[in-house]
Design a protein that fits this description.
The complex is a heterodimer.
Chain A lengths: L5 H4 L26 H15 L5 E5 L7 H4 L3 E4 L5 H11 L4 E7 H7 L1 H9 L5 E6 L2 E2 L5 E2 L18 H4 L5 H6 L4 E8 L3 H21 L3 E7 L3 H4 L3 H15 L3 E4 L3
Parallel strand pairs in A: 1-2, 1-3, 3-4, 4-8, 7-8
Antiparallel strand pairs in A: 5-6, 7-9
Chain B lengths: L3 E6 H11 L4 E4 L7 H9 L1 H4 L3 E4 L3 H13 L4 E5 L1 H16 L5 E6 L15 H5 L10 E3 L4 H18 L3 E6 H5 L1 E6 L8 H7 L15 E2 L6 H17 L6 E4 L6 E4 L2 H16 L4 E6 L1 E3 L3 H8 L4 E6 L5 H9 L4 E6 L8 H13 L2
Parallel strand pairs in B: 2-3, 2-4, 4-5, 5-7, 6-7, 11-12, 11-14, 14-15
Antiparallel strand pairs in B: 1-8, 6-13, 10-12
Helix pairs in contact in B: 1-2, 1-7, 4-5, 11-14, 12-13
Amino acid sequence: MAELTFQDIVKEENLVYKKTSLLTDKALSYCPGCGHGTAHRILMEVIDEMGYQDKTVGVAPVGCSVLAYEFMNIDMQQAAHGRAPALGTAIKRIMPNHFVFTYQGDGDLAAIGTAETIHAINRGENILIVFINNGIYGMTGGQMAPTTLPNMKASTCPFGRDVSIMGNPLRITELIANLPGAYYVTRQAVHTPNNVRKAKKALKKAFEYQMNVKKGTCFVEIVSNCNSGWKMTPVQANKWMEDNMFPYYPLGDIKVPE
Amino acid sequence: MAKELRLMKGNEAIAEAAIRAGADAYFGYPITPQSEVLEYLMGEKPYEKTGMVVLQAESEVAAINMVYGGASCGRKVMTSSSSPGISLKQEGISYMAGAELPGLILNVVRGGPGLGTIQPSQSDYNQAVKGGGHGDYKLVVLAPASVQEMYDFVEKGFELSFKYRTPTMILSDGVIGQMMEKVELSEYKPRWTHEEVVKMHPWATTGKTADRERNIITSLNLQSDVQEEHNLKLQAKYKKMEEDVMFEEVMCDDAEYLFVAFGSSARICQKAIQNAREKGIKVGLLRPITLSPFPSVIIRKYADKVKGMLSVEMNAGQMVHDIKLAVEGKTKVEYYGRMGGIIPIPSDIVKALETKLIGG
């Protein structure tokens, strides 16, 4: 009997799901169980489904997703730490018919880049900001982030975040939802199939608002895990996220168009 | 067609030149003594005439990163600031150099360090010509000595920054920025269309089409060997930049001594030459127009001919070191300058020439 090949097993008619061509074939550099891969995929699926590969420019941040451009098969720019919304501002204003998004983590967006985040949104820049919040600096090795929860341990708060010394976690999404330039603000997750579907729907809405409504910034937060930084297994991390992150960062729409 | 002449401030000339050069965007933040650039552009509303984007950013940091974003799309994008603001921009400038992006940055220098003074200075020479931010890189640095050159160097600056895909800095100062002179204006050049940009700058992030691989603008190379290869490529580019060196020689033919000065210092040296020659001292001026690439070759040539060179600078003596490197000890090199926003006067420059070189 001849050896079975991949094509013998996976036949077109049997496929219920396949990878979008807007993801490259490069293996993801993220830790197993990390939410980045799923977030990348649904974002690329939305752009693919809309047929906008040739009109999309993405901005990668500094952090674990600094190499997002290795995986996303679209034109991309890599920004200095925290500055992605400034890049996005210029790209969109210079090419107003393009779809422009930034993809940023919590340290990037809510600490070093707070000014750029707030002012781009306050100006109502017609871009999408995808905000991955896992409450930790992943790439640099698990340091405390602006969104690290009270008493949560990180390498720079090894005994847990003491808010009396280190300050409180920043609910930046609620903060920016108050700005007049914010058009659509929502908080999602991607750790279950149901959440993935909801998050993708939110990204699709954000896409349509940017391309057709053009009335301000869309902001999609994805509360995610960091099993390596949190020092848990992927399953434990997801459970911990539900038990601890979601009460502090509740999922759902925060600002929707009237 | 008759020449179009206008009496303008240096800072206004920059702004008008940007519109006429077909610039795509300007991102700025107010700081004395260069705020007129943004004010003039906002008053002219080029976004209604040529489609040029003008935006007041929330900070110098944001402004330079907007330049990064726009330049990555293959567009002519610029910003301006003055010394403390330029320090803030250094992160973005380093990233632009690393990512090999074009772009124009105007520095209307004021005295430092720190908040310093709002009066004119040339104390950012080292910062401009040695890189300024982190990492091994160089900018093209143009030093205007008149309002006309402020105007002309916008187009020249864009041309060189696209030629070498490295940012160009116009290193001006509070004198040139604020003073008014007659400027001959150029014709309006249309902005590049999207199709032209796609064709001319195949590296730009204009949207991935089926006929090409995706374009990525980044300064990140995690592997040392790849990064070193990138560094070598950059250094080769900086070496090649030397073919675009620019300088001006004033009364150098019979000169026994040479002033070397740029920008407003060079203007003052022209008067000092007159004063010195009335006294019978044969002195000329060599004015570097590009500070990077530095006109080392011509300076080296004069080192064999003159008895000494006086570097006249509005700082503690920064360019003098580059002159010394160029002359390789072949002639005496001295420095005279003022700091703190004080402008040297011709008689003091002549006195310095007499005491430091002729009598010394």
